[in-house]
Amino acid sequence: MIVYDLKCAKDHVFEAWFRDSAAFDQQAKAGKVVCPECGSKKVAKAPMAPNVARVQSPSSSEQRQQAQQAVAMLRQMREQVEKNCDYVGEKFAEEARKIHYGETKARNIYGETSKEQAEELVEEGVEFGVVPWLPRTDA
Ligand SMILES: [Zn+2]
What we know:
Bound molecules: zinc ion
Number of strands: 5
């Protein structure tokens, strides 16, 4: 389906749907396309509102690009973390605390923690960062 902005001989502009552009040509020639305001059969395609199209497409592609960049950045961050930190899994809070209190050797770790555990760590003054973790394959 295709939507056209149509204009009659009296400058009434209206929208109409057609199966395709050939269908419009056919129906217009057969006098089946009628202005809903004045009933005129002299109807032609009005220029599409170009401002709308011009404004929308670049900004949406820009947004897409920004999203892609953000995803790429998070992927990189994840790679860095995986390369440079020990994975401690669900023991993250426990290990982070041990490091904080000097009970184990200081090192970079990463793992999972619950929101509650993270809040406890914050209260105890244990430093850590929250990384938005993306799945490795994100197709
Ligand atoms: Zn009209």
